[in-house]
Amino acid sequence: MSTDSTTKRLLDLNLTRNLLISLAVLVAGMLLLESTDRYTNTQLSSLTYYAIAAIGLTALTGLNGQISLGHGALMAVGAYTTALMLDTETPLPFPVVALVAVVVTSVVGFVVGIGAARLHGPYLAGATLALAVALPSVALYFKGTFNGEVGLTVASPRPPEWFVSFIDAVSGEFATSSKYVAYLGLMCLVVALFFALNLRRSKIGRHWRAVRDQEVAAEIAGINLGRTRVQAFVISAAYAGLAGAVMAIVVRLAAPSAFTIVLSLSVLTAAVIGGLGSITGAFIGAAVLVFLPPWVTSLSTGSGLSDTQAAQMSPLIYGIVLILVMLLAPGGVMGTLSTAWRRARLRRPNPATPTQKG
Amino acid sequence: MAHQPTSARRSRRLVLGAALAASALVVAACGGGGDGGDSNDPGLTEDSIKIGGHFPLTGVAAPGYSEIPLGHKAYYDFVNANGGVSGRDIEFIAKDDGYNPAKTSEVVNELVLKDEVFAIVAGLGTPTHQAVTNFLNAEGVPDLTVSSGSLLWDDPKEKPMTFGWQPDYESEGKVIGQYIAENLPDAKVGVFGQDDELGEDGTRGLEQYIADQIVSKVTYVPGNTDVGPQIAELQKSGADVVVGFNVPSYTALSQLVSMKLNYKPTWFYTNVGSDSGLVGSLLEEFSKGAIKGSSPLAGVYTTTYMPQASEPDNEWTKLWQKVWDEYGDGSPLTNYKVYGMSQAFTLVDALNRAGDDLSRESIVETFEQDGSKLSGPNYVPFRYSEDRHAGIGGLKLVQIQADGTTADKTPVLQTDVGDAEIEEFTGDVGTPPESGIPGS
Q1: Which of A84, B143, B179, B423 would be B162's cystine partner, CB 3.0–4.6 Å?
Q2: A304: how many CB neighbours lie within 10 A of its CB?
Q3: Cβ within 8 Å, pair B135-A258
Q4: B228 and B243 share a domain?
Q5: Where are the beta strands (DSSP E) in A201-357?
Q6: Any alpha helices (H) in A64-160, and if so which ranges?
């Protein structure tokens, strides 16, 4: 059957497959948003920006082997750009604003990346850590523009007519501004996911991995190490910028205290818990960040602890989870799952056949 | 597209997708809905009122501030044990935001959309609370007695649901400025300010009276614990009076650095930064035990706008002590717990006044109509009205004594932002009702 084989060939193309996966995530996300209450909607909005940032970081660390403790600061660049651009009488549509945020953050990422490309391991961690600590202070020194410690209030984008009627048709509900923000977050996430999926399988992705695994071999193969590293950092920064843009409209504020080192570490934690280099892992890690703390808090309050004790439980459990993951499953959730899956496949009957990897 | 997936990877992805869709449907079946459809506002039932607030219960801002919700809770427990408000028990939820605006937005979403509180009360911090005021006003959730002296909460047009509580930093700066102008006219004044609303509003108030006396202004950025250069600059400028618009940890740091530099000006700190108990323990911690004693802040000037924990003979403090002894956790009474209980007292008064037809609308109306009549331990009444959502309208200047108590340096003064005059408040300061519960 000729049509059948065409379909098959199309499906084998990375582009088609990635498009289908992205669409599936979009549909699943819409189903989730329409089937859950408003509070869960806001949690899902938070999940989108954590996931976008974690995808960017997991690509940088997992595929290219560079570490960054400064992604929180890069998110601040995206968030402040968004806040400034939305603060006008007739703001541009959010996609345009988000795009500008991505570009501005990429430029910052480029500058940092040039420095980062020369550094390794703990030195790179140290340099990006300095970025995370220093960049939010810029907002304090240029107070006229960034409004210092209080920060910039972000006007939530208003849902346009077509969106209101779309939501009304889908679920019969009235589309609030927070619903619209959740959908914008989802759209950004899907776009980010689509690019990440393609990137991984592309020439660029292979170059990144080559540089990560064996510098000398990569260089002999004609890969420019420095350029590849800078490229990885810029793309990762672009993700952080997009995450920052979404964060600005979800949180409705861009203030220095929201972009402390804690944010950078949270994003790194998400990538590590999920499994470095895994996009699915980035989703899982982001979900842990968003859903674990309130869950622990309400569980602790339910079991009779005071509000303060319950609040202290959440970082405790979070820390324990992180330590356990590092000790028992250093590959993160996805790393462990794929190892287990590979082992299970090896244990299948038919031991005579030699495995591919050996 | 009824193709048969061939590779294992593809089938795995499909399974994942199917699982996601399935779980979405399950959630759809179980969750959703929740709209009662009756006319009652969220958080209200026949026999309960649910309210909540956001506070730094963990992290750098937690010492001191995390005790405010304890005060609230103790006072509501006391009210509930005595019949509640019009037969309704008050349920109070404190959520931790770690003084991070992004977290504040998350926990306030949780309070409003999941816990469905009737109102947000005593939300703490300027940048943190700023992150949620638009949301609360858009949702029509009363946002009462914000725990911050910023002027941002006094904006009835844009933020009709939001009400401040403590005196604003500008009024405080004015009172300090006038005192220095009258009593220390030859002093050279230095300003040590936090680089935000606290420092800016305060300095603006101060400059109305002693702009010509100020010889040096330095600021610090919260989070940077090295204030050596700033204090050295003040010392170099020859300032013999320093006014600090800062938070408690920076009171401790500035004292510590001044001791090291052997710099001994007369210090003024605003109410926010002058809690002797907290500053004392911070000083002990920062100096690794080298500085001890009941009051390292002896001789320092500050302001108060209501009775403090260090005034055990005051009728209000007696009430707080009684409530705390019965419903607290056994720890000593502090100014932060007093702060929380004082807010709670005023809120209970407003809830009582709104009475049986309590609703989100009626509580806001109560604040606007009865604003200046709302009772509480504050020396000067609230400035609430239809045009103003500012809190307590005055304070007095005091000096901290060696035993941790305070001595009055001015009578109770009433003032406001801008060029409003500072006048002596001649009204009745008031004592708590016999029962300890307003309106009963």
Answers
A1: B143
A2: 8
A3: no
A4: yes
A5: 253-254
A6: 64, 71-86, 94-116, 121-141, 143-146
| B428 found inside a domain | no
Q: Which two tokens stand for residue A76?
A: 């601040």
- Residue B125: pLDDT over 60: yes
Q: Note the pLDDT tens digit of each residue in A54-81.
A: 999 999 998 998 889 999 999 999 999 9
Residue B105's pLDDT is what? 92
pLDDT digits (tens, 9 = 90+) for B235-285: 999 999 999 999 888 999 999 999 999 999 999 999 988 887 888 888 888
Nearest chain A residue to B24 by CA: give it. Answer: A32
**Residue B34 within any structural domain of the chain:** no
| Binding-face residues of A in 183-222 toward B, CB within 8 A | none
Pair B87, B196 in one domain: no
Tell me how close the Cα of A310 comes to any Cα of chain B, in angstroms: 9
Q: How far is CA A271 from CA A46, A333, B431, in A?
A: 16, 10, 58
The DSSP letter of residue B271 is G
d(CA B282, CA B294): 12
Position B32 pLDDT exceeds 70:
no
Query: How many Å lie between the alpha carbon of A34 and the closest alpha carbon of chain B?
Result: 8
Of B304, B333, B367, which closes a domain? B304
- How far is A123 from A128, CA to CA, in rounded Å? 9
The verdict on B263 and B335 lying in the same domain is no
If you average pLDDT over each of A197-206, B111-120, B293-302, which comes out highest?
Answer: B111-120
- Tokens 């208003």 belong to A158
d(CA B47, CA B358): 12
Nearest chain A residue to B29 by CA distance is: A35
Question: In this model, does residue A195 exceed pLDDT 90?
Answer: yes
Q: Above 80 in pLDDT, residue A111?
A: yes
Note whether B179 and B154 are same-domain residues: no
* Binary contact (A28, B17; C-beta < 8 A): yes
Q: Count of H helices and E strands in chain B?
A: 13, 14
Indicate whether B75 and B174 sit together in one domain: no
User: Cβ distance B115 to B95 under 8 Å?
Assistant: no
A315 CB neighbours in chain B (<8 A) are 58
- Name the residue type at position B148: S
Residue B218 neighbours by CB distance under 10 Å: 20
Question: CB A252 to CB B57 under 8 A?
Answer: no
User: Does any CB of chain B come closer than 8 Å to the CB of residue A37?
Assistant: yes
Per residue in A243-253, pLDDT tens? 999 999 999 88
- In 3D, which of A181, A217, A197 has the Cα closest to residue A13? A197
How far is it, in rounded angstroms, from Cα B244 to Cα B257? 14
- Helix axes A177-201 and A94-116, enclosed angle (nearest 10): 40
B83-102 pLDDT, tens digit each: 899 889 999 999 999 888 88
Residue spans per domain, chain A: 2-259
What domain range includes position B154? 44-166+310-392
Q: Are B367 and B163 in contact (CB under 8 A)?
A: yes
**Alpha helix stretches (DSSP H) within B57-117:** 62-65, 68-81, 101-109
In a domain, B398, yes or no: no
| pLDDT of res. B13 | 45
What CATH number corresponds to the domain at position B281?
Answer: 3.40.50.2300
This prediction's pTM: 0.83
Quick check: A98 pLDDT over 70? Answer: yes
Q: Choosing among B27, B104, B130, B162, which should be mutated to test the A contact, i.e. which has the most A CBs within 10 A?
A: B130
Q: Do A252 and B24 touch (CB under 8 A)?
A: no
Domain final residue, candidates B281, B304, B327: B304
Give the whole-angstrom CA distance, residue B71 versus residue A157.
38
From the list B292, B220, B282, the residue with the least C-alpha distance to B248 is: B282
